[in-house]
C-alpha cells in the first residue's frame, strides 16, 4: 500500500527535519521544500500529495499566498498552517482561506502528526458515494463525485469549503440557513469557524459567481438570520 505523500514547506531546516522524521516514522512519505516556488513546482509537475504542511513565514512568499496558488492547481489538497505567530487574526485568515488546521510554533511533532491523521480522516469521511450530476436550483449543476459545481454551464473554481457551502444552498433554494447551520454542514471542524468566517466565504463565492454572470446575485442575505439561494421565478 502506498504511503500518503505529505508536502512540508518550511525554510528552517531544523524544524523541517523534525517534521520529516516524525512523519516518516509514522508511515507517511514526507517531501520537504524550503521555498514556496519549489513547493508550487512540485505540486504542479510531480505526483499528487495527500496533504500540505505550510509555514506562514516563508522567504519568497507567505504561506497564505502559497496556499491560494496551490488551491488553483490542486483545489482538493488539505492544508495545515504552521506559524510562529499565535494571534487570532492569523488563525482567522488561515481558516477563511479554507485551511484544515492551524498549529502555532513551538509544537510537538507527535501532536502535528496526530493532526495530520485527523485531517486525512475528515477528508476521507467527506468523500461521498459516486453520484450523477444533480441540480437543485436553476443555473447550477452539482457533481458530487467530482466535487464540482457549474454555474450557467461554466465550472466554478471553488475551494473545498466553498464547494460544500454553495452545495448546501443550491440543494435547498429558498431555504434560509443560519450561519451556525452552514458551519455545521460545510466545515470539517465547525468549532474552529466564526460567523465572520462564513460571511467571508459567502463573499468569495459571490465574487466567483459574478465572474460568470456579473448581473446575477443568486445568494440572498437575510440580516440577522443567514443566507439562502434565490428561488427561480415562476
Helix content: 40-55%
Q: State the end-to-end distance.
A: 54 Å
Task: Give the class from helix and strand content and strand pairing.
Answer: alpha/beta
Strand order of the largest sheet: 2-1-3-4-5
Total strands: 10
Strand content: 15-25%
3D shape = elongated
| Element-level helix/strand string | EHEHEHEHEHEEEHHHEE
For the sheet with most strands, the description reads:
5 strands, parallel
What is Rg?
A: 19 Å
Helices, by number, come to 8
Mean pLDDT level: 83
Unreliable stretches (pLDDT < 50, length at least 5) are 127-134
Observed structural traits:
alpha/beta; 5-stranded parallel beta sheet; 3-stranded antiparallel beta sheet; 10 strands
Textual characterization of the structure:
This protein has 234 residues and is of the alpha/beta class. It contains 8 helices and 10 strands. Strands 2-1-3-4-5 form a 5-stranded parallel β-sheet, sandwiched between helices. A 3-stranded antiparallel β-sheet has the order 6-7-8, covered by helices on one side. The termini are far apart. Mean pLDDT is 83; it is low at 127-134.
